[in-house]
Amino acid sequence: MGFFFNKNKKSDQQLKEAYFTASQVELIRSRFKSNKTAMVAGWILTILILMGFFSEFLSPYQPTMAGRDKKYENGPPQIPKFWDENGFSFRPFIYGTKRERSIKTNFRWVVTVDREDRRYLRFFVDGWEYSYIDLEWDLPGEFFDVDVQALTFSTHLFGVDKGGIHLFGTDKSGKDIYSRTLLAIFTSLKCGVLGVFIAFVLALIIGGISGYYGGWLDSFLQMVTDAIRTVPQVPLFMALAAFLPQEWSAEAVFFVIATILGFIGWPTLARRIRTHVLSERSQDYILAAQLCGASSGHIIRRHLLPSFTSYIIIDLMITFPYMVRLETALSFIGLGLIDPVSSLGSLMQNVSKADVLLNYQWYFIPVLFFITFILAVVFVGDGLRDAADPNMIKKK
Question: Can you name the residues that pair with 97 across neighbouring β-strands?
Fold first, then answer.
């Protein structure tokens, strides 16, 4: 008995030593894993990001007009089956369709299902080419023209032996909504990441300098911050939409929109960083570092920033869905990313019409992905905030 008691006691002592010697990253990782809600949201967010990154591989058809199905316009989702009234099949299949005019619909084109025509799914099929590194910007001047393609493939996860398969249906022009949704997730993700990165760098520099040095420099930077915050966003993007040349490529427009989102999104985060720096710069450990001869950059980087890491994390996680929602809202009203760029906002433009709710309910599938994406980011941010805040341990 004494042996087992000493063994357990030693194990507890080792756990305590591991806790006190662990780095901040290890402590944050351990606390985050104990939050089940954040872990589930993290897995969902990871799956969505991977789906967006490998959207070309997961999509059997191009999400642009080049990959549209002329014979299946406004077609409902095609769900693979294993059996029907004709018998069971070990290979999943869908039905073929016919496009014809009907008297009941005033001779409009109507898509009918042919249940005798089975079309079997195939995996790892060869199709249209795509590149994971595809930079094609056509900005003013020859110096800014970029056209780089690398890691080009033509293999896709699935397809059918004849015709096409549309898991989420098609839109009015015959474009595959499934392919567009996966690409839209990654487009909105890239736009949000670029906007957050620009906003974070500006906020960290301006807020840190303003809070640490104070004085006239603080007053001047706060005047600039207030001036940026008062700029109305919608009129700004309306003027931007009218100013951008029509000959610019979709990638160039995307880069400009993401950059503008970053330049107008930093003031709030900068004010929060300034407030934290102001409250921490008068602490004893900062005075001790100054007496030891530490430079201002070293104090800000090694002492001030780690002291409010949890606040920076939650601010970034709050800013990210804000950037995605702003891009979505601008694209929804036609001021942001529009066709041929597939973003969640441009896809949600289709649900603004009255007949969609009655006749084309599958148009709302991208909306479900958008809601899931935003909620996953929010729950992950909340879990990271709790994991990075040492006071949460005491509260629990």
Answer: 113
**146-160 and 108-137 beta bridge pairing:** antiparallel
> What pLDDT score was predicted for residue 148?
64
CA distances, 133 to each of 67, 147, 248, 257, 288 (Å)? 20, 10, 20, 20, 49
Strand partners, 129: none
Domains and CATH numbers, the chain: 78-165 (no CATH), 181-395 (1.10.3720.10)
Residue 106, Cβ density class (10 Å: 0-12 exposed, 13-18 middle, ≥19 buried): exposed
In angstroms, rounded to a whole number, what is the distance separating the alpha carbons of residues 145 and 139? 6
Higher pLDDT, 305 or 135: 305
User: Regarding beta strands 87-102 and 146-160, do their DSSP bridges make them parallel or antiparallel, or are they unpaired?
Assistant: unpaired
Nearest of 135, 128, 132 to residue 151 by alpha carbon? 132
Query: pLDDT digit string (tens) for 267-288?
Result: 888 888 888 888 887 778 888 8
CA-CA distances (angstroms) from residue 272 to 74, 211, 375?
48, 10, 23
CB 248 within 8 A of CB 236: no
pLDDT value of residue 199: 86
